[in-house]
Design a protein that fits this description.
3-stranded antiparallel β-sheet, 82 residues, alpha+beta, 20% strand, 1 helix, single chain
């Protein structure tokens, strides 16, 4: 798995099978599908997912967290092509 540092910046993402993981400073977003098959490839996929979750949990455990963050919807901009 590439070096993915949870909650560190807004630019990185990674792909596990067809599951996209996007990094944000206040959250990690996951969407898509992920198949963990009962074979060596599935085991490697499971390890990659576990490493990602373990890294996120480690960051969360190391901080004094608020009860809940407020997630602001993205700013809307005018379409320059219309």
């Amino acid at each position: 798995m590439p070096r993915f540092k949870p909650f560190q910046e807004e630019a990185s993402s990674l792909l596990l099978d067809q599951l996209t993981v996007e990094n944000r400073v206040d959250r990690i977003e996951l969407y898509g599908t992920l198949q963990i098959t009962r074979d060596q490839a599935g085991l490697q996929t499971a390890y990659a997912l576990k490493a990602l979750i373990d890294a996120a949990v480690a960051v969360l455990e190391s901080e004094d967290l608020p009860k809940q963050v407020v997630i602001r919807p993205p700013d809307e901009t005018d379409n320059p092509f219309s």
